[in-house]
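The data are quoted verbatim for reference:
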Amino acid sequence: MLKAVLKLFGREEKKASGKIAKDRLRVVLIHDRANVSPEVIDHIKDDIIKVISSYMDINQRDVEISLSNDDNSVALLANIPVMRIKSGSSRRREHR
């Protein structure tokens, strides 16, 4: 909750460089185990941002996409900060 309040007032918590390096290494290892290149993840992230942006205003700079895996499966995890839902989306469902 403190993080949200600090963000609201324009004071985001800064991650220590060690924490950032650890997070990046974790992401690289997960991608490596799942046999998905960072380039593919970047393309997935761009596509998700395009689609979600049709329906919501999002903070694109803070979007985080990653893979998580256990012994039996791989999951795509997305953290997408939503600023507001667009009323009356300008895009109609094309597949109806």
